[in-house]
Predict the structure.
Amino acid sequence: MLDALRDIPALITGRRLDILAGNRMARALLTDFDARPHRDRNMARYVFLDPAARTLYDDWPTAARSLVAILHVDAGRQPDDPLLAALIADLSQRDDDFRRWWTSHDVLNNTHGTRLYHHPGVGSLTLDYEIFSPAGDEDQRLVLHTAEPGSPSERGLHQLARLVTQASFPAPARTLPPATVDHPPPDFRRRQLPGQLRTAGRIL
């Protein structure tokens, strides 16, 4: 389903911001989550622990802090989730920003917004994101990134799509610090999205 969206980055996220699936455009924009160990296929781990993410996002603190707020929402819904507790403990131990922001207890439940990226292959991209949830499954989110029609960012997405087709986009740097907390890999079941989607709260 996602690879049919050839011109826009698309992701499916699950509980704890686990990355369940992504198309080739999402891998080109962000990183190839499929190439990472299971425990690292997580948006919060990528944004806080991979130095490449800090240069990709123009306003990294805002993007990163929004993920902390999303994890607070998940913690409220699933207070006894051991994998979420392990994720929070690991990120708190390995990143000072995460530890400081986690204690602020921000909660965020937005469904759309704009992000500015500095991509190594196509330059600056201003992308709107919108987040949908399959009816009856609040744990899964479909995240779509689009550009304003006729804008330089739309041309940049088209260029990224061409690079994806040519398999010539730069590989993201992966310089993750060694893990200090271990836990079993999360559930990465890929359930088919129902035909009817409703907007729901996530920011990526």
